[in-house]
Amino acid sequence: MPRTAVVIGASMAGMLAAAALARSVDEVIVLERDDLPDEPRPRRGLPQGRHAHILLPSGRDAIDELVPGGEVRGRLLAAGARERGLTSGLVTLGPQGWYRRSRHHDAYPLLIGSRDLIDRTVRDSVLASTTRVRIRRASATGLLGTAERVTGVRLTTDAEGGAGSSAGAAEERLRADLVVDASGRGTRVEHWLADLGITGIRKDVVDSGLVYATRLYRTPVGAENFPPAQVTADPKSGRPGRSGLLLPIEGDRWLVSLAGTRGGEPTGSPEDFVPFALGLRHPLVGRLIAGAEPLTEVTLSRSTRNKRRYFETSERWPEGLVALGDAVATYNPVYGQGMSVAALGARELSRELDRAGIGAPGLARRVQRAAAKVVHAAWTMSVGQDQWFPGVRGKSPTLADRLLSAYTGRMSRVATGSYRVSAAMCGVTTLQADALHLLHPALLLSTALGPFLPPLSGPPLTPEERNILSGLDTPAS
Ligand SMILES: Cc1cc2nc3c(=O)[nH]c(=O)nc-3n(C[C@H](O)[C@H](O)[C@H](O)COP(=O)(O)OP(=O)(O)OC[C@H]3O[C@@H](n4cnc5c(N)ncnc54)[C@H](O)[C@@H]3O)c2cc1C
User: Fold this and answer.
1) Nearest CA to ligand 1 atom 20
2) Structural domains in the chain?
3) What tens digit of pLDDT does each residue of 322-366 get?
4) What is the 3-state secondary structure of the chain?
5) Which of 6, 31, 51 to mutate to test the pocket of ligand 1 (most atoms within 8 A of CB)?
């Protein structure tokens, strides 16, 4: 009998899981309840697509391994996305001050484009790389099988071949050797597992009450070369964390996302947008957009909780089922990790399939555990910051957290004046290096002795960028 895999969700985790599976089965059917657009456009199942997204180098490398030939990166850049080194190409006010931009090292490249472009590009690249993957418009409604082995999914389609449970929707059963749940933060997989008799999955939620507010602007003429700029929150200030990120994206647009934790939330009112940006720890983002032409209204998102499902520790886990991406965990989006964790999880699936083959006993459990290591790294970083914001729910700092935070706080300050220390921190925040790396004796010493250079009094801009900024400050007569 031909081997079949079913993937639920055709977004980042789903399409990359499909790419991984295509090498091991005869057919991969990706179920997606959205009508997928041919162009990079917002869609219902990807509401976060309107907000600023950065793809970390760890995610990019994982994608390269799953869809070889640099296909995704090449297509993204050809479509107008940009690549900027974290240590040189971004203007960043960190919690401890402005990071210097290295003139010599263009390390940790970030891919920057709209989430809708990334979504469309990943999907197209996977479909172009294999004939074994096909997307079917349908909504998964449950699992087939037992607590020992999942053998497929239940799904609904309507008369037009669309998804949902509207009148006329028929329920179907689809057999599969492996099912991947990549249906995102709204996954129903816990309920589906409960129907099979698996309950008591441990969960954690840490919620800083963060609200995102995003607006698109036309890039002002002459400002095309202005780099991405961000003003981060200082979690240790004792005040709600407010931040802003301006990303130049395809189509000569600036995508600006502002964010505030509980008590410091941005509103959806267009009148409040620029004042909020001007009121951040530094007014840079506000100054850039104050005279720019808005292209959209303000879109809000409250889907920002850190939420983790510990599938990997469940007492029972069926053969034939893997969950990846946001279906396992979500993080405060400010740290830009979700897509990369999804890609790294799919890479774990691919490596385990290559190593043991799809029929190997315990495969699903091993993939779940391997993917959990990446989840754990992102989770620790995100929660480690969020726990300090006033009014956070779900976690308060322990003594160990306080000691660690004192050390990393000092290290962040040293990083503003030391390329070596800042590069080491970037390695960890981009999920390329283990956090233990920060305890290397050379870094301990640098952290104890530093900072080596005085703090910068303002954003590290080149003379050309300074001219652009002051040009924007002066309204055209
Ligand atoms: C405001 C905001 C900003 C963010 N910024 C960043 C960032 O800068 N960098 C970053 O890496 N990440 C960021 N993220 C996180 C990122 O968007 C997610 O981590 C990523 O999209 C997860 O991919 P996924 O494939 O797991 O899930 P999703 O992208 O949520 O996709 C799930 C898919 O499953 C489909 N689906 C759902 N249920 C069913 C069903 N029953 N049957 C069939 N199909 C179904 C949906 O339609 C959708 O297509 C941000 C998130 C938010 C909210």
Assistant:
1) 339
2) 4-53+114-205+305-382 (3.50.50.60), 211-301 (3.30.70)
3) 999 999 999 999 999 999 999 999 999 999 999 999 999 999 999
4) CCCEEEEECCCHHHHHHHHHHCCCCCEEEEEECCCCCCCCCCCCCCHHHHCCCEECHHHHHHHHHHCCCCHHHHHHHHCCCEEEECCCCCEEEECCEECCCCCCCCCCEEEECCHHHHHHHHHHHHHHHCCCEEEEECEEEEEEECCCEEEEEEEEECCCCCECCCCCCEEEEEECCEEEECCHHHCCHHHHHHHCCCCCCCEEEEECCCEEEEEEEECCCCCCCCCCEEECCCHHHCCCCEEEEEEEECCCEEEEEEEECCCCCCCCCHHHHHHHHHCCCCCHHHHHHCCCCECCCCEEECCCCEEEECHHHCCCCCECEEECHHHCEECCHHHCCHHHHHHHHHHHHHHHHHHHCCCCCCHHHHHHHHHHHHHHHHHHHHHHHHCCCCCCECCCCCHHHHHHHHHHHHHHHHHCCCHHHHHHHHHHHCCCCCHHHHHCHHHHHHHHHCCCCCCCCCCCCCHHHHHHHHHHHCCCC
5) 51
